[in-house]
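TASK: fixed-backbone design
INPUT:
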């Protein structure tokens, strides 16, 4: 028997906020639809007449509409197979019932003051849902949902309805594997699907034994390996020297000189020192302090925001000369002198525009090519890999390495490479 849910044709409360129809295969659609349904449920409850004040022996609260009554008031029909990208994601209205006002309250106060406060809070629902995911995660999830939507259309089922079965997910995994996606990408796509279904109060169709075994099979049949090489101390010394001969201006020579050394010594992600998909993680000039005298300079770095920082705490690290021939701290101080004191990202071009990831990669590849190294094996993340590998080689504890690199788990171990001093 086909599963049922409330039709999009159900009669909405007169005061419900209208939502522009947008594609189902979008996190924005889910966020706006949930905001809409919460709004409708709240406004419906606020319009409910309040029982008159009664004596203590007879006073009672205005009851919440039971789920059966709410369902009876709505037009319910079988969910039709998904037809177009314009269908909205729907959720059950009873999932968002709001308790009625307490007895003895004034109807006038309830409808005026509560309505005013509630209307102010409606936009916050969507804002909080949107902010629950990092910008980069939202981009990946949107892509995953779009692929799943296309797949669901092909097999005529609603990708976000309650009728998604294990077989649908198993076929989807096989479909992605046939498209030569890695097991990690498949897992990410399933995370996006599970995220939306849980938001819609559906059971998570991706959380079962069969799915786990299929992912394990994909991992065994198509294992992936990280081919990126670490920027070792020796490689770092060479490319820092190569900057002087490959950069196209004096300012760029000083800037990239400092950027390479900073990326290594601060265990920096490239998105933290260049303009990237998550600009909130970009280090600002105000996050940096250089202290000490000419004989011993120290750089203090405060990471206000960074990947996986779920508790929004600040993280501070410090470095000095570093393991290279040229001092990392003095190199940064020299760059800061030519940069100027204007606010904004730490690393900017001479016109104060942020350094982009593309600029950084282009300069890095030019230096690697000059040093006759395979530029396809070195990426921006190679600085971070090299720093973690050197720390492990020097006997740093796992906890210390995690703290330096702002890792939250043992995931850093996949970055460790041998022989990083050469």
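OUTPUT:
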């Amino acid at each position: 028997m086909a599963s049922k849910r409330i039709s999009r044709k159900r009669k909405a409360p007169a005061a419900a906020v209208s939502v522009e129809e947008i594609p189902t295969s979008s996190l924005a659609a889910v966020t706006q639809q949930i905001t809409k349904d919460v709004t409708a449920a709240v406004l419906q409850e606020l319009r409910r007449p309040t029982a008159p004040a009664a004596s203590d022996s007879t006073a009672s609260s205005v009851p919440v509409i039971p789920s059966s009554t709410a369902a009876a008031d709505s037009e319910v029909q079988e969910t039709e197979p998904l037809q177009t990208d314009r269908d909205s994601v729907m959720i059950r209205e009873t999932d968002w019932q709001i308790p009625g006002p307490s007895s003895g309250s004034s109807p006038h106060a309830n409808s005026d003051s509560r309505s005013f406060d509630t209307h102010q809070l409606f936009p916050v629902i969507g804002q909080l849902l949107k902010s629950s995911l990092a910008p980069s995660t939202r981009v990946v999830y949107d892509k995953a949902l779009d692929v799943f939507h296309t797949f669901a259309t092909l097999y005529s089922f609603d990708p976000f309805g309650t009728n998604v079965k294990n077989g649908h997910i198993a076929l989807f995994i096989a479909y992605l594997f046939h498209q030569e996606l890695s097991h990690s990408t498949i897992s990410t796509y399933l995370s996006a699907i599970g995220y939306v279904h849980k938001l819609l109060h559906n059971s998570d169709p991706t959380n079962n034994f069969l799915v786990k075994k299929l992912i394990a099979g994909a991992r065994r049949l198509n294992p992936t390996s990280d081919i990126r090489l670490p920027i070792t101390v020796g490689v770092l010394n060479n490319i820092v020297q190569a900057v002087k001969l490959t950069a196209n201006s004096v300012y760029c020579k000083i800037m990239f000189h400092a950027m390479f050394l900073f990326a290594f010594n601060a265990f920096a992600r490239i998105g933290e020192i260049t303009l990237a998909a998550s600009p909130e993680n970009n280090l600002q000039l105000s996050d940096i302090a250089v202290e000490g005298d000419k004989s011993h300079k120290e750089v203090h770095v405060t990471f206000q925001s960074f990947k996986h920082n779920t508790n929004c705490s600040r993280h501070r690290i410090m470095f000095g000369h570093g393991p290279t021939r040229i001092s990392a701290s003095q190199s940064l101080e020299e760059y800061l002198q030519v940069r100027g004191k204007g606010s904004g990202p730490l690393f900017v071009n001479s016109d104060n525009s942020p350094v982009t990831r593309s600029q950084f990669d282009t300069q890095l590849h030019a230096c690697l090519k000059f040093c006759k190294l395979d530029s396809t094996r070195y990426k921006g993340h190679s600085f971070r890999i090299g720093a973690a590998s050197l720390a492990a080689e020097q006997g740093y504890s796992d906890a210390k390495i995690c703290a330096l690199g702002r890792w939250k788990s043992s995931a850093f171990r996949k970055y460790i490479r041998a022989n990083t001093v050469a």
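COMMENT: Strands lie at 4-6, 76-78, 288-293, 296-303, 315-319.
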